[in-house]
Amino acid sequence: NKYETIIVEKKGAVTLITLNRPEALNALNSQILADMVDAFAAFDADDSQKCAVLTGSEKAFAAGADIKEMSSQSFAQMYGGNFFGGYERITATRKPWIAAVNGFALGGGCELAMMADFILAGDKAKFGQPEIKLAVTPGMGGSQRLTRAIGKAKAMEMCLTGRMMGAVEAEQSGLVARVIPAADLVDEAMKTAEQIAGMAPLAALACKEMVNAAFETNLAQGINFERRLFHGLFGSEDQKEGMAAFVEKRAGNWTGK
Ligand code: HXC
């Protein structure tokens, strides 16, 4: 493991990335950002890897941006240095990845989880955007992604009061895909990732791209984009294989072509 603040393990076609700054509840400092950016780029570039899981510890996915690192920064340093702008490179990951959230996902931690293609939550997970208590606001997409995920009323209340949302409410509100007993969360996330890794790779890339387009386009453009990608998959060998396999009542063998 070449990283200081994360652990990266390849398990078959799934990369497991574990945030590992237990002394600070995985608070996100510049080192953990640099390590994650590098790990996600390596995952995306590695043909043997098809899906990733990002997780933290049972106590904390991540308790936010590192307050101790941020506290003395000036406007010039934050704005001039594009503080945490590097996270955009994680959201540029083209292959699917899942956030498996146990414990606290607060501030930047909640925002990081929301960068995933979807979140699986342990039953003790707690989500929140408490930045207002520090006299700042979300700064890594929280005001936008949380609002899109759970709607204005709950997002506004959470951002203005800093209250935390438990796993069940998060699932009911559409923030997380499923709630799983905390002790089983990572195993279940790995199983889900293996399932995705077993799909035809081009279809998985296209699926991710078109669902994400729903947040960037109007309905007609989004539907058109979807249809073009759908049509495009008929140029792939895997589409022929997938449909032949269905007719022949067997599993498909994907080439990624
Ligand atoms: C730095 C942090 C930290 C953080 C926890 N720690 N969160 N250090 N940055 N965000 C450190 C604590 O200082 C402490 O270190 C150790 O982790 C354990 O935390 P405790 O507070 O002792 O644990 P506990 O009492 O169980 O409380 C857990 C907690 C609390 C409720 C999660 O730690 C907490 O409120 N943390 C801050 C959450 C927050 O405000 N996040 C938003 C940050 S702003 P020591 O050395 O004392 O043992 C943000 C902006 C995003 O995220 C935008 C960026 C562009």
UniProtKB/TrEMBL annotation:
PROSITE patterns listed in its UniProt record: ENOYL_COA_HYDRATASE
Keyword Endoplasmic reticulum: no
GO biological process assignments: fatty acid beta-oxidation
Record flagged with keyword Lyase: yes
Alphabetical keyword list: Fatty acid metabolism, Lipid metabolism, Lyase
Entries under InterPro entries matching the protein: ClpP/crotonase-like_dom_sf, Enoyl-CoA_hyd/isom_CS, Enoyl-CoA_hydra/iso, Enoyl-CoA_hydra_C
Pfam families (alphabetical): ECH_1
A GO term for molecular function: enoyl-CoA hydratase activity
Documented EC number(s): 4.2.1.17
Catalysed reactions listed for this entry: a 4-saturated-(3S)-3-hydroxyacyl-CoA = a (3E)-enoyl-CoA + H2O; a (3S)-3-hydroxyacyl-CoA = a (2E)-enoyl-CoA + H2O
Top EC category: lyase
Family to which this protein belongs: Belongs to the enoyl-CoA hydratase/isomerase family.
Functional summary from the UniProt entry: Could possibly oxidize fatty acids using specific components.
Name of the molecule in the record: enoyl-CoA hydratase
